[in-house]
Amino acid sequence: MTQAVRAMQAGGPEVLEFSEIETPQPGPGEVLIDVEAAGVNFIDTYRRSGVYPMEYPHVVGVEGTGRIAEVGEGVESWSLGDRVAWHDAHGSYSTQVVADADMILSVPEFVRTEVAAAMPLQGLTAQYLATSSHEIKPGQTALVHAGAGGVGLLLTQIIKHLGGKVITTVSTEEKAELSRKAGADEAFLYGEGVDITAKVKELTNGEGVEVVYDGVGKDTFDASLASLKPLGSMVLFGGSSGQVPPFDIQRLNSSGGIFLSRPSLQWFVRTPEQLAKRASMLFNGLEHGWLDFRVGATFPLPEAAEAHRALEGRKTTGKVVLTV
């Protein structure tokens, strides 16, 4: 038997239940992994709450780290005991999970367990944002919303490593200090009465920025568009404040011929080679010290509901991790 956290029905964190389930079995091309830690992400809360339609009950979670316990038919690239991490294995809030053998990463032994669990989803997201959705060039300036969040902190570090400048928005002065420590050139508080566009223009001598990375969505979208230089890039990669309503595409023209994209990680790691290449940059950063993964809070697996409350209440910075 396997111990797991299941969402018994759509609802708040109280619908999460820690119990025993049948141990999952790997099929062809899959591996069974003994989970050591699991990452906690907003997508988990969306699926728990019913924002994203799911069957109930279901085991929550998509990300984690552990060691391979069993390989399915046809799997030749992995062996028992290999240390791995993953970003898209449904049912990761568990002591054992099945994953696609082509969509897991080999984890070097120097990487701490909590960091290995925290890295895949947010780390790979930050990597593709700065290198593919809009490729940062030396001297370019980026606006990063939620700069003290998991993706925001990593994205800031990667942009700085690539020679760019970073302006971030945050919700508290404590988070502003965290953002600056990650390398942000400027960090300012957003909220009621704050004119984001005016502040960005002030910080860029009236020019605006080359790119906005916006994972907040509805509350910041208009200000993000207005903060861009002509021919700038608007990269909308999330909607923590809600989804952006439909809008007239002609606005992109009137805003300066803006490039708008709405990416997600799945399109940038479609092959094992793409996945490994993107992850190699992250491991390089960890090994050489220019990249730091902030694990803001850890909870034992049975306390997943408390982890969700902390994440949804914006009480955390960096990554939340469940330990097994």
From TrEMBL:
Record keywords: NADP, Oxidoreductase
GO CC aspect terms: cytosol
Residue span, Enoyl reductase (ER) domain: 11-322
Listed CDD domains: QOR2
Source species, domain of life: Bacteria
InterPro entries in UniProt: ADH-like_C, ADH-like_N, ER, GroES-like_sf, NAD(P)-bd_dom_sf, QOR-like, Quin_OxRdtase/zeta-crystal_CS
One GO MF term: zinc ion binding
Coiled-coil stretches noted in the UniProt entry, renumbered to this chain: none
Classification via Pfam families: ADH_N (PF08240), ADH_zinc_N (PF00107)
Identification of the protein by name: NADPH2:quinone reductase
Organism the protein comes from: Brevibacterium celere
